[in-house]
Design goal:
Elements: H1 3-18, H2 23-27, E1 33-38, H3 44-55, E2 59-64, H4 76-84, E3 90-95, H5 100-107, E4 111-117, H6 123-137, E5 144-148, H7 155-166, E6 170-174, E7 190-192, H8 195-199, E8 204-207, H9 223-230, H10 234-237, E9 245-247, H11 260-263, H12 271-290
Parallel strand pairs: 1-2, 1-3, 3-4, 5-6, 5-8, 6-7, 8-9
The structure holds phosphoric acid mono(formamide)ester (CP).
Phosphoric acid mono(formamide)ester (CP) binds next to α3.
Length: 291
């Protein structure tokens, strides 16, 4: 996606974020059907897509794997073909395998939004993160943003690196070697293996969860030791710029990658504004595809 298209989506999201609901909003997707198809758990993404659909007047169907025929062995492709036969206007899909949502999009007639596929991408998360940063820092270009933690398994990190570098931000990847994908430098980021160096003079610190569910073996000695070296606490935050802000896509593991005191400090933490931006961003994205 070109930078101009990203800016257009952020501007429209900001409009939705700042305006009270109107009857015109409700007409945007009136009579349209959105299916949320989530093969992985979600709190923020699924709920915000549902809320965004309702705010735009769409009919929403939530399909979770536990209550579907996937449990009887139906494949992703057969599930996609079945849903396609019901003629939805939009599919919002999350899957544990990288590339699965792309595969699904090839099999259906409507637009498909990637709500997170494996360790590959989570584009609407990156959009909402960029919008949140822009609202608090005015510009994305020229900012130094440290993405810290389990980058190897993080679709959020990958989507943010693509988007934020395109918008002119300087990205640092801060993690132990075991939690970095090979050849991460090719994505245009600077790599740091200590929090002290990686966070120094940053404008934004984006913390990531250890995604144990995607690990084949133990990649950190212990959660306690990990927190000591890579958890964001006041020691490390003091090394960033005095007005540096902290982000986390959620879900958080308090005391593992972030200290509760920082996560809950409304002067430094953007975690709540990130969630608030999520609904508006998903409204703008769905409108751009269906209206
Ligand atoms: N940030 C995010 O994707 O959170 P959920 O897994 O709760 O949707």
């Amino acid at each position: 996606m070109a930078a101009s298209e990203i800016i257009k989506l952020m501007d429209r999201s900001e409009y939705y974020l700042d305006s009270p609901p109107t009857t015109d909003h409700k007409k945007t997707l009136q009579g349209k059907t959105v299916i949320n198809l989530f093969y992985e758990n979600s709190t923020r993404t699924r709920t915000s897509f549902e809320l965004a659909s309702l705010k735009l007047g769409a009919n929403v169907i939530n399909m979770t794997v536990d209550s579907s025929s996937v449990k009887k062995g139906e494949t992703l492709i057969d599930t996609a073909m079945t849903l396609n036969a019901m003629h939805p206007d939009l599919l919002v899909a999350r899957h544990g395998d990288s590339g699965a949502v792309h595969l699904l999009a090839d099999k259906v007639d409507c637009s498909v939004i990637n709500a997170g596929d494996g360790r590959n991408e989570h584009p609407t998360q990156a959009l909402l993160d960029a919008l949140t940063i822009r609202r608090y820092k005015k510009n994305l270009a020229g900012l130094t943003i440290a993405i810290c933690g389990d980058i190897a398994h993080s679709r959020v990190a990958r989507s943010n690196i693509y988007l934020l570098t395109k918008m002119g931000a300087r990205i640092r990847a801060v993690a132990p070697a075991t939690l970095l994908p090979s050849q991460i430098q090719k994505l245009g980021v600077e790599v740091y293996h200590t929090m002290a160096e990686g966070i120094a003079d940053c404008d934004i610190i984006m913390m990531l969860r250890l995604q144990s569910e995607r690990m084949d073996s133990a990649l950190v000695p212990s959660k306690r030791e990990y927190f000591h070296f890579f958890g964001l606490d006041s020691r490390f935050l003091a090394l960033a710029k005095p007005d540096a802000l902290v982000m986390h896509p959620g879900p958080m593991n308090r005391g593992v990658e972030i200290d509760s005191v920082i996560a809950d400090d409304i002067r430094r933490s953007l975690i709540r504004p990130q969630v608030e931006a999520g609904v508006a961003v998903r409204m703008a994205v769905m409108e751009s595809l269906v209206a």
